[in-house]
């Protein structure tokens, strides 16, 4: 299927590894030009080189080493390029733990990274998208928005706030009628550093081995495996395609069947 987005420009956040890299890779393979951003300059530079080697001929890949959750980081991204046709928001989730241990500053950091930063990126790009007649915004959130995990309370709260915001703005007729969509992509257990860190934390708290905790988590998934970033990226690329113009305000769950609900 031709996704119809070759030659577009995409901003992909957290793109040096994991799910962000998977999304950038899928878009590059579709001929989309990229501005990729992450905090670690060395890892990002290496990721950008891999993306160039994997992309369609002629695809441009610009790397911006910056913290997208800060004003300075966002300024750096928009200094590299002002207008984007596609934006994939993504920031590392806050650490797991016991809610009794989280102070106000911990909550502010979580909300700033996982709610307010995507909102700032949406605000900075949607009007330009509408004026040009095409725009796709995909927010990488978490399956915990639908099935919260107690140890991920900071993430549950911040990402649920973003979900509520998107539910309203994504249905603005001035945006949707102008072919601008905003959707959330909810990953379950994917083979990333984030999952490995969460499993390690669970192992430490329960006294079990990391292998035992991983095996238990894997067996709880109907697919009997963890997802791969590349397949997550393919879903993201479809949501960014010309074929997805009638989908907006949706929470697309990719979790191997782990969520047990009907809705």
UniProtKB/TrEMBL annotation:
One Pfam family of this chain: adh_short_C2
InterPro entries per UniProt: NAD(P)-bd_dom_sf, SDR, SDR_fam
Highest taxon listed in the record's lineage: Bacteria
Family: Belongs to the short-chain dehydrogenases/reductases (SDR) family.
Protein name: Dehydrogenase/reductase-like protein
